[in-house]
Amino acid sequence: MPNRRFADGEVVMGRWPGSVLYYEVQVTSYDDVSHLYTVKYKDGTELALKESDIRSQSSFKHRKSQSSSSSPSRRSTSRSRSRSPGRPAKGRRRSSSQSREHKDDKKKTIQETNLALLVLVFSFNQKPSENNTRRYNGEPDSTERNETSCVILEQKLKPDLEIERVLEQYSLHPRKEEKKKEERHSEKKFFETIKTIEKASSKTKELEFGGRIGTFMLIFFLPATVLYLLLMCKQDDPSLMNFPLPLPALESLWEARVFGVFLLWFFLQALFYLLPIGKVVEGLPLSNGRKLQYRINGFYAFILTAAAIGALLYFQFELHYLYDHFMQFAVSAAAFSMALSIFLYIRSLKAPEEELAPGGNSGYFVYDFFTGHELNPRIGSFDLKYFCELRPGLIGWVVINLAMLLAEMKIHNQSMPSLSMILVNSFQLLYVVDALWNEEAILTTMDITHDGFGFMLAFGDLVWVPFVYSLQAFYLVGHPTAVSWPVAAAIIILNCIGYYIFRSANSQKNNFRRNPADPKLAYLKFIPTATGKGLLVTGWWGFVRHPNYLGDIIMALAWSLPCGFNHILPYFYVIYFICLLVHREARDEHHCKQKYGVAWERYCQRVPYRIFPYIY
C-alpha cells in the first residue's frame, strides 16, 4: 500500500476541481481505500482530492523565486558576453553607436540595390520610340540592351535573393509584435484545447435504464404496457392471471378522425400557451450561464380549457366519446409522441454542444433518442419540453377523468356519479390544479434542468400521464365499487396528509433555491457546498431525503383505495409510482454525490432515511 505524502493538519496547495488554479488548503483526513485526501479551503468548503492535485507550498515559492531571479542573470550574462574586459565604458558606448550606424548603412545599401533594380525593370518597359532615340544617340539597340541587361539583372538579383533569405531568416519586425503574435497564437491554441476537453468531458459516460439495450427495449415495452393495461380494464375479470389477452384487430386500433381530434387538442393547448397572459420568469442558469425565459400561464390555460369543455357540454356534445374510443386515442397519442421524438432527435444533431442534455449526450443513437439529446429544444420562444410537461397531458388527464365520470353515469343509468368516482376525480383534480398553480416550481426539477427532451419525456407526458394516471377512473366505469362514507372520510384524510407533505416539502425546497437569504426561511439550517448551494437539514428535508416522494406515494394510495380490493389492477399506479420514485431517488443520490461531494456525505449522515422514515 502506498505511503501518504501529506499529514493531517498540514497546509498545502490544492487544485480547485475543473480548473488549473491552486488554493491554500488544510489536510483534514486521508482515506486508505480510495487514496483521497479530504482538504478544507479557507471559506470552509471541504473536498476530496487526489494526491496528484495537491502540491507543497515550498514548490510554489521555489518556482516564484526562480522565475524572478532568472531575468537579471540572463541580462548580466548577455552583458558580459558583449563587452571586452579591458575596454572602457565610453568605448562600449561608441561601439554600440557604431553598430547602429552599420545597421543604417546596411539598410541604405538594401534600399539602393532595390531602387536600381526597379529602374532597370522600368527601362524594359519603355516604348519603341524611346529605344530608337537612344540608338541614334550612340546607345545600344533593344537587342543589345536586352543581352546586357540580362547580365545586369542576374548580377542585381543575386544580392537581392541573398537579402530576401536574410529577411526571411531574421525578421525585421519589432520584437514586441512578434511576442504579441506568439501570445495570441498560444492563447488561441489554449482555448482550442479547453474546448476539446470540455467537449470530451460533456459526453454522458454513465448510462441509465440498462444502457443501449435497456432503452431499446423500453421504446417498445412502454407502449405495449399502456395497451395491456387498457385492455385489462375492458375485461369482465381484469385479473393478472388472465393471460394471454384476446388482442383486438389492428384496424380497430386506428381511426383518422380520432387522430384529428388529438391533433386539435394538442394545437389548442399550444395556442393557449402562446397567449400573452401570465408573468414571464427566468429559469435556473444553464451550463453556459444563460437563463431561459418562461411564460407562466398554465392555470389560465386550464381555465380556458374548462370554459371550452363547458361550452361543448352546453351544446350537447357527448364527452363519453373519449371512453368509447379510448384505445384509439392512446394509439394516436403514442404515434404522435414517436413522430415528435424523431423530429426532436433530428433537430438536436444541429444543436451546439452547450445546448445538449448532460444525460443524453452519450454518442449512442438509441440511448440519446430515448433520454433526449437536446436539453431545451425551442422553436423561437416556444419551449417544446416545458409545454409538453404540463399542458396537453396533465390537463388532458382531467378531461379524460371527466369523460369517464359521464360514461359511468350513462352506462349505469345514474343521475349522479358514484362516490368512488367522485373521490378519484376530486383527488386527481386537486393534484393537477396544484401543479398548474405552482407551475414555476417545475423549473427547478431534473426534468427541466438535467433531462433532455426525447422519447422518454415525450411518451411520458403525452401518453403515460393521461392514459395510465386515469386508470382508476377507467376501471371504475366497467367495475363499479361501493364505498361507505366513513371509509370515504378515512381516504380523504389520507389524501390530505399526502398532499400536505408533498406541497409543503416542495415549497420549502423551491423557496430556498430561489432565495436562500429570505428572512422567512431563517429557521432552516443547511450544509454549505462547494457549488455555492446549501443542503437543507431541517424541516421536511431533515426528516427524510425526499419527502416530496413520500407525499406522492401516500396520495397514489388514496387514489387507488376507492376502487376496492377485488383486483390488483387499480393499484398498478401505486406499484409503478413506488418503483419510479425509488429509481428517481437512486438517480438523485448518484447525481448529488457527484455534484456536492463531501457535503452530500455529511448530509446523508444527518438524514439517514431516503423516502420512508425508519424503513428506507
Describe the structure.
- This protein is of the alpha+beta class and 616 residues long.
- A 5-stranded antiparallel β-sheet has the order 4-3-2-1-5. Strands 6-7 form a two-stranded antiparallel ribbon.
- Helix 2 (89-124) runs antiparallel to helix 4 (142-169) and helix 10 packs antiparallel against helix 15.
- The model is unreliable at 63-97, 109-159, 166-173 and 194-201 (pLDDT under 50).
- The chain is built from 20 helices and 11 strands.
- The longest helix is centred in the N-terminal third of the chain and has 36 residues, at 89-124.
- Helices cover 60% and strands 7% of the residues.
- A hairpin with a 4-residue loop joins strand 3 and strand 4.
- The relative contact order is 0.07.
Protein topology:
Blueprint: E1 11-15, E2 22-31, E3 36-41, E4 46-49, E5 54-55, H1 57-82, H2 89-124, H3 128-136, H4 142-169, H5 175-201, H6 211-234, H7 256-274, E6 279-282, E7 293-296, H8 298-314, H9 321-324, H10 326-348, H11 365-371, E8 378-379, E9 382-383, H12 384-411, H13 419-437, H14 446-449, H15 455-468, H16 471-478, H17 485-514, E10 526-528, E11 534-536, H18 547-560, H19 572-596, H20 598-606
Antiparallel strand pairs: 1-2, 1-5, 2-3, 3-4, 6-7, 8-9, 10-11
Helix pairs in contact: 2-4, 6-10, 6-11, 6-15, 6-16, 8-12, 10-15, 12-13, 12-15, 12-16, 13-16, 13-17, 13-18, 17-18, 18-19, 19-20
Shape designation: globular
Strand order of the largest sheet: 4-3-2-1-5
Percentage of residues assigned to helices: 55-70%
- The oligomeric status of these chains comes to single chain
Q: Regions with pLDDT < 50 over 5+ consecutive residues?
A: 63-97, 109-159, 166-173, 194-201
Distance between the termini: 36 Å
Structural class: alpha+beta
User: What radius of gyration results from the CA coordinates?
Assistant: 39 Å
**Count of helical regions:** 20
Strand content: 5-15%
Mean pLDDT: 79
Largest sheet: 5 strands, antiparallel
